[in-house]
Amino acid sequence: MGISRKPKSAFDKINKANYHCVKIPNILLSIMFIGFTVLQFNDPDPITWSLIYGIMALVCMMAAFRYYIRRLMLIQAIAYIIYAALLWPGVMQWLRSPDKSKLFDDLAKMEFLYIEETREFIGLLICLTVLAFYWYKFSRSKPR
C-alpha cells in the first residue's frame, strides 16, 4: 500500500512563489542593516547604533523565514519612538535652519549637534518603517 498524497493545488504553488518574492527583499533589508552596523564603528556612539541596526538585521533575517517575535518588535518600536522623541528638538532646529543641505555635509555634524541628531532621527525612522511593515505582515499572517 502506497501513501496517497494530496496533489498540490495551484494556490499552493502561488504561495510558494510569493514566499520567495518576499524572502529576497527581507534578506536584502537584513544585508542593508548589516551594512549600517558596519558603518557605525566610526560613529561617536557606535555601541548604541550597532545594537539598533544589528537587531534590525536580525529581525529582517527572521522575517525572511516567516519568523516574527512580536514582543521583540514591540519593545524595539517603543524604544525607537522614545529615542526619536529625544532627538526631535534637533530635527526641529534643522528644519528651521536656512541651509538644509548641511545634513549631507560630513564636517557639519561636528559643527552643529542638530545635524547628527537629525541623521540619527532618520535612521530611527527607517527602522520604525520596517518594523511597522513587519507588524502589519505579522498581524495578517495565519498563526502556525
Description of the structure:
It is built from 5 helices and no strands. Helix 1 (10-39) runs antiparallel to helix 2 and helix 2 (46-64) runs parallel beside helix 5. It has one domain. With 144 residues, the chain is mainly alpha-helical. The protein is 75% helix and 0% strand. Residues 1-5 have low confidence and may be disordered.
Question: Which helices and strands occur, and which strands form pairs?
Answer:
Elements: H1 10-39, H2 46-64, H3 70-96, H4 108-111, H5 113-140
Helix pairs in contact: 1-2, 2-5, 3-5
Please summarize what this structure is.
This protein has 144 residues and is an all-alpha fold. It has helices at 10-39, 46-64, 70-96, 108-111, 113-140.
Mean pLDDT metric: 83
What's the main sheet like? none
**Number of E-type strands:** 0
Q: Are there runs of 5+ residues with pLDDT below 50, and where?
A: 1-5
Order of helices and strands: HHHHH
Radius of gyration over all CA atoms, rounded: 20 Å
Strand content: under 5%
The total of helices stands at: 5
Q: What structural class do helix, strand and pairing data support?
A: mainly alpha
Helix content, binned percent: over 70%
Q: Tell me the number of structural domains.
A: 1
Report how far the terminal alpha carbons are from each other: 31 Å
